[in-house]
Amino acid sequence: MITQTSEALFARAKNFIPGGVNSPVRAFKSVGGSPIFIKKAKGAYIFDEDDNRYIELINSWGPMILGHAYEPVEEAVRQAIQHSFSFGAPTRKEIEMAELIVDMVPSIEKVRMVNSGTEATMAAIRVARGFTGRDKIIKFEGCYHGHGDSFLIAAGSGAITMGVPDSPGVTKGVANDTLTAPFNNLEAVQTLVDANKGQIAALILEPVVGNMGCVLPQEGYLEGLRELCTKEGIVLIFDEVMTGFRLAKGGAQERFNIMPDLTTLGKIIGGGMPVGAYGGRKEIMDCVSPQGPVYQAGTLSGNPIAMAAGYAMLTHLNEHPEVYAQLEETGHKIVGGIREILNKLGLNYQINHIGSMYSLFFTETPVVDFETAKTSDIPAFSKYFHAMLNQGVYLAPSQYEALFLSTALSSDDIQAVLAANEASLKQIKG
Question: Relative to the CA of 61, which of 26, 180, 247, 401 has its CA 20 to 30 Å away?
Fold first, then answer.
C-alpha cells in the first residue's frame, strides 16, 4: 500500500489538531505507524487519500449496518437538506423518529434526542440521579460510555489504548461517586451495593461490551443485575450505542429478553450522522425538563437532517427482518472461517462473537472481563493489524475495539477477509 498522502496529511494535522486526530483511537498509537486518511466510502469499501481500497470492518464504529452511503438514507438526506440544515425548533420528523424508536425498542416508553452517545449517557445518569435522589453510580471495568467525567474511571476503548484509563481533569469528587466492578461478576456488584446501601442511583453497562473488544455477558449475568436493581431501587441503564438495532431490531435487550429502565442509543439512529438518544420508563423520562425538574437541552437535538437519515435507516431495519438473518450468517461465516484458520495453524487465540460483532484476542485465556482482555498480546495484534491493512482489510486500530459487519459484504468480500486472515496469522506465527 502506498500511503504517502495520508502520512503527509497526518504530519500537517499534528500542527493544528492535538495528536493530529479528533478522537484518540484514530491515531494508530497502539498499533504504530500513521493513520489512514479516508476520502470516501461506498457499501463494504472505504478509499483513502492515496486511492487504496479496503474492505471495511468498522462501519463507523457500528452504525453503517447496511454499508456506507446506503441509497435510501442518502435520498432521505437529499430531500431534507432542501429545507435548511437546522431550526432549533420542533419538527414532525422528531415525532416520527420517537414513535419508531418506542415501537422497536422493548423498554422505551418515551425518548429524548441528543447529539451523541456521550451526551446520551451523561443525560441518562443525571436523570437517574434526579429520579432516585441518590448520587452514586456503578459502572464496569473496561466499559466505555463516552468521555463524560463520571465514565472515565477504569474506562475502555481509547482510554485503554492511550494508557490513561483514569483521565486527568476528572475530579476526586466525581471519582468518589463512581463505583466500579468487574464485568460478569455479580458477587462484586452485590458487595458494592451492600457497602453503599441506599446511595446508588444507577448501574450502567454495555449489555454486550464493545469497548474492551467484544465481550459477552455470561449466562444469568444480565438477569442477576436486573433482579438486584429492581430489589434495591437502582435504575438499570443499558448503553446500547453499539448494540442498539444491531444485535436485533430491539437491540441487546430484545436478544437477551432483559428490560432495562433506561437505554442510551447512538449514531445508528442518525444513519451514521452525529446523533444520540436516551429513553425508558415513562415515570423516569417524565423527570426530564420541561416536563420535570432534571434539565437537559441542546440546540441541535433532533436535527432535521439526522432525523431524516435515521428514520430512513430504522424504517428499513424495522420492515426487513431478513437483515438480521443475513448479518448472523455473515458473522458465522467469517468467525467460523477464522476459527478454522486458527486450528489449522495451531494457534489458540480467542474469538468472542455475537451476531454481527466479533473480536479476535491474541491470548489463550478466555476473555470474559477487563483483566482477561488485558492478557492479549498487543505487539502480535499490531502485526496482525498492519498485515491485514496491507492486504486491503481495514480493522479497528486497537485490540480493545469490537469489529462490526454490514449487509454490504458479499460472498467474495467474505472470502477475501478470510484469505487475508490466513496470510496475516501465518505471519504472526512466523
Answer: 180
Residue 294, helix vs strand vs coil: strand
Distance of CA 109 to the CA centre of its chain: 23
Q: Is 267 a catalytic residue?
A: yes
C-alpha to C-alpha distance for 266 and 244, rounded to whole angstroms? 8
Strands 357-361 and 350-354: antiparallel
Give the DSSP letter string of 207-275: SSB-SSS-BPPPTTHHHHHHHHHHHHTPEEEEE-TTTTTTSSTTHHHHHHT---SEEEE-GGGGTTSS-
Is 349 tagged catalytic? Answer: no
Q: pLDDT digit string (tens) for 301-316?
A: 999 999 999 999 999 9
Task: Determine the Cα–Cα distance for residues 198 and 208; give it in Å rounded to an integer.
Answer: 27
**Nearest to residue 56, comparing CAs of 411, 389, 412, 427?**
389
The one catalytic residue among 267, 324, 400, 413: 267
40 has catalytic annotation: no
Asked whether residue 166 carries a pLDDT value surpassing 80, the answer given is no
Task: Determine whether 90 is exposed, middle or buried from the number of CB atoms within 10 Å of its CB (0-12, 13-18, 19+).
Answer: exposed
> Which pLDDT tens digit goes with each residue over 35-94?
999 999 999 999 999 999 999 999 999 999 999 999 999 999 999 999 999 999 999 999
User: What whole-number distance in Å separates Cα of residue 32 and Cα of residue 284?
Assistant: 45
pLDDT at 149: 73
Closest listed residue to residue 235, CA positions, set 290, 283, 185: 283
The catalytic residue among 54, 144, 278, 400 is 144
* pLDDT the model gives residue 158: 45
- Helix, strand, or coil (residue 136): strand
How many angstroms separate the CA atoms of 126 and 333, rounded? 42
Choosing from 239, 261, 369, 413, the catalytic residue is 239
pLDDT tens readout for residues 246-288: 999 999 999 999 999 999 999 889 888 999 999 999 999 999 9
pTM, rounded to two decimals? 0.94
How close are the terminal C-alpha atoms of the chain, in Å?
22
The pLDDT score that the predictor gives to residue 153 is 67
Peptide bond into 290 cis (omega under 30): yes
pLDDT at 148 (0 to 100): 79
Cα–Cα distance between 156 and 165 in angstroms, integer? 7
Average pLDDT value for residue range 229-249: 97
